Each structure stands twice: as C-alpha cells, then as structure tokens.
Amino acid sequence: MPLTPIQIFILICGFCSRLHTFDSQQRQYFVSEARNDTLTITAPRVKTAGTEFCWRWTSHDGRHINMSIVCANASDGQPLWTIKTDSFHLENISRLNVLKHFENAGEYTFVESKPSVDILAKFEVFVLKAYPPFGTFMSKNDSRLSFVQRGTDVTLRCEVSLLSESPTLQWERDRGQTSNTTLLYNNSAYIILHSVDEQSEGKYQCRLTGDGGVETVNIFTLNVTRYSQMKRHAIYRQSSNNSSLSLICKSKKVYPSLKWTWEPRPNSQIEMIAVEKGREVQVKGPIKLGRNSYTTYNGQDFIFHISPVKFNYSGTYKCIVNENTVYTAIIVHTIRVFGEPPRGVLRNQSVVLTCELSNVSDLVTLAWLRMEGNRGVLVKQQILTEKNKNITLTVSVNQTSLQTDSLHWQCAVFTENTLRALATVFFISPTTKNPETSLEISTLANQAKSKHVMITVASVLTLFAGILLGALLYYLYRKRMPGAILDVFSSTTICFEPQESEPVYINISQMRNGRENVKSSVLLVEGSKTLESREQRSEINHNLNKNRYGKVNMVRRDKTPVTSETVTYASINFNKSRFRTSPCVAKPSN
Description:
Blueprint (H helix, E strand, L loop, with lengths): L4 H19 L2 E6 L6 E5 L9 E8 L7 E7 L5 E4 L5 E5 L2 E5 L6 E9 L3 E14 L5 E2 L7 E2 L6 E7 L7 E6 L8 E4 L2 E6 L8 E8 L5 E8 L9 E7 L6 E6 L6 E7 L6 E7 L5 E2 L17 E6 L8 E7 L3 E16 L9 E8 L6 E9 L2 E10 L7 E7 L9 E8 L2 E11 L11 E4 H36 L5 E2 L6 E2 L9 E4 H6 L17 H18 L20 E4 L18
Parallel strand pairs: 1-9, 18-25
Antiparallel strand pairs: 2-7, 3-4, 3-8, 4-5, 6-7, 8-9, 9-12, 10-11, 12-15, 13-16, 14-15, 16-17, 19-23, 20-21, 20-24, 21-22, 24-25, 25-26, 26-29, 27-28, 27-30, 30-31, 31-32, 33-34, 35-36
C-alpha cells in the first residue's frame, strides 16, 4: 500500500527530529573531586515506540568504547541490568548520575535499543584535574595545608580529559603574572615557577574555557616554607645568555658565618663565596655574583644569584654554616640545544637538532616537541638513566617540509611526568623573494647575542648620522655669514666680494697706534697667497693711508686721549671700479 503524502511528511519530520537530537551534542565540564559528588546527565524527552533504552559510554582515555553501562524498560523505568560499578547511578530512564572522577570523562549516548537501535542524544563530559607540585609535603600542624620548599622550582600541572581544538586551557594567578614558561602537552597545561619564595605564594587558577565561554576553574593554593630546609633538591636550567639561577639559603637560627661551595664533579669542592655576619661578601670562585646576589649577610638569609648560566655550571652547590654544617644542597642540571650546521641550511637540506643534558641523577625523559602555537606535538623522546652514557637527543628536520607553524621547536625535560625545563629553538624562515636562501637557527642564547650586536650597530649608525648632521648644520650656518667659509667636505675656501653700497668699518683707535700698518679689521682675504693678491693688498693699504690724512669722510681726533674704553670708528666707501679684486679660486685640497 503506497504511503500518503501526510504519512511521508510525518516520517520525514520524525527522522529530522531524531537527526537534530543526534547532532545537537551537549558538552558539560566539571572539576575532578575526590569526594562522591555527582554530575546529572539528563536526556531530552523523545516520543518513540521503543520499549527499551540504554546509556552507552566511550571514555576519553580509550579504556572503554561504546560500552553499555545501564539499560531500562520503557514501561516502568526500572533498570534491566547495569555494570558493577559505583561510578554510575540511574535515577530514572532519562537521568544518569555520574561521579565527578577524572576517569569517568567521555562521551555518553542515550539510545533506543528495542525494537530498533536509534541514537536519541549525545553528551560530551570533560573533567579538569590539578596535580600537586613535585616535592609537596603536608603541614605537621594542619593536614589540609601543603607546602613546597623555599628555593626550589615548582611545576604546576592541570589536565583535561580531552583537549580538543575548541576548548582552551591556561594557568592564571589571582594577583600578578604567572611565569612565561608555559606548555600545552598531552592534554595538560604546565607552568614552571623558578626558585620560589614568599613572592610566589598565592592562588593559581587552571581555567578551562569551553564552547560559548563556559568556564571551569580549578584553584590551587601555593604555600612556601619560610626557611630552606636541610634537604637536597634538583634544579634544571637552560644554558643561555639570558638565563639565571638563584641559590637561596635561609635558616631559622642565626649563624655567624656562611659560605657557598660548588662541586662540578664528585670530590672536587670549590669555595665560591664566604661571608660573615654584617660584613661584605668575599668572592673566591670562578663564577661571578649576579646582580640579584646579596652583598651582606644578616646571619640568616643569603642569595647567591648566577646570570648567565653556562653549560659547565652544573654540579652540586652547598650552603655551609659554621664552617662545616651543610644547611642546603642544590643539584643543578644544565641543558642546551643547538643545530648542525649551526649557520642554517638551504631549503633542500636537513638540519640536526641536538638537546644535551649535563648530567643525569634520576630517571629523566628528553622529548623534542614541534610547537603549534603553545601546544607541543611529540616528535621524538628518549628515557635517560644514570647508567645511560648517551645524554643527548637528536632529531633530523627536513627543511622541505617546514611550514610557518613548524619553525618553533622545544626540548622538554621530564622527571616522573613532571616538566622540569624547556629549551627553545627557532628557525628563521627565508624571504619569499629568495626561497633558496638558508634557514637560520636561533636559540635563546644566540638571540641574546644578536640583540647585543643589533644594539651596537644601531649605536654606531646613530653616532655617524649625528656627526654628519652636525657637519651639515655647521656648513649651513657658516654659509649664511659674509666672508670666507671653510668647506669641511672639500677643504676649499669660498670668497665673497663686498658690495658697492656696503661701507667697510675701520677701528681708528688701533690705527693711531700703528699708523703704518692696517690690521686685519678691514676684511682681508686670508686664504689667497698669490702674488696678485699681495700687490692688491699693498694698493689697498696705500689708498687707506692716503684717505686717512685727506679730507674724505674723516674727522681729525688727534687731540683725543686714547684709553682702553675709547674706540673710534670711521667708514670708508670704496670705489668698486678702483679697488676691484680678483675672486678667490676654489682649489681642491691635496
């Protein structure tokens, strides 16, 4: 029997309704908790002819795939069967309660199982979890408080069950800024706090932002011990020109003297600095004090700051009080990265990136990560032990496959799944006009060197431009003045003739003392040394003497006493046709 148009329309509407229900996947986010709090997942009411419904689950960690966790009869809503676990509880046929545990994250599907199998609703449940920092210990007075040791490196890590492209995960601080050493790797967000002290204390928030701006926050409170305990701990630092290391020694008691020693190798102790209470520091070792080092000792607190950190600065540093009591011991591991060839390669060549660790005392994992924004994609990793002599990890990068998003690489150091250090490498891409030019390799170390070189070159260019500008201004200033001008560029002399209507002023008081000689106040051209110039000067002097005792524009003042404050001037109008001189000839300097 053929279907009527109305029946076809009803079937299409029902199919579209189910399709819409299937496509409108809902996402829910919550924070993993140790107690038995639950999350309720509610399926939408859908009118179907089904007689049995089930909840299925695919976990984010991959342990379970489309596993049926509970099924119920449509008539009374009572469970027909359920898996043996306390993680799930069926409140009614369309409401499922899930414990807020990290392992319960995943995709939940509400299906009609009988008489046919249809997907009615899907839910994606994301769980956020924060891990206590490495080396955390509980307070003896309050079990709810946890502390980290003063002067250690602290890594904060939070993990989401599945970090897809739409949600974002980041660390924030309630006050101030967090460290710029951040990494997103394996669904986790890391930050490293170097050499923690009271300035590092506070609340840190791991914020997961989902679709539509939905935020889930996990808050971790960091407490730092007041004193550096008598305990050994390890610190990892990248060897670069802008890296630094603060060795902190703060005691509860007052000690009259303190010193820092360094053991680059076992049984090779070197005394670095020594200081007595209230006195200045005596530097004895090969490592210079950094700018943040203390210059005096108050009997309890002293910081030995090292900057920059070189690769051979690894070893054991000890804070010793009372000459022989070790109060704090810090094991420093250095890490460096470099590429071969170091000057870069052409587009059709490959480069070998090497990550090297100074020494190994624990179980360490080195990993090369290709960075996509702030997310790291694992390319190669290697586990190192004390017996493993190979403490390097190399990776070959084919330049023909390099794109814009793969020019940033990082070498990560992990101990017990805790990020301890990062070393960065950048590839400087060639210009599009010259695609065959080489790709340069830039690390933090040579970035600092390049910065210093650029500053030096800019300073030299600025100084040179200033000299040229000053010379130009001097040239323009002298050019506007009458008389001779010294051309600083060609070392020539430029002369100007006095105009016919311009008088020449003569100091008569000076002429009275030297009647036979007329001094240089008559605008004589000094640059010309030719015979013609000397004859013209003699003729000018002769005419001046003649006019002085004549009656041309002169008033006799012989009876006027001459003093140091008496100056008499007279003006003489030259006949240009009579006293014409030849112009100066500009001669190039030899």
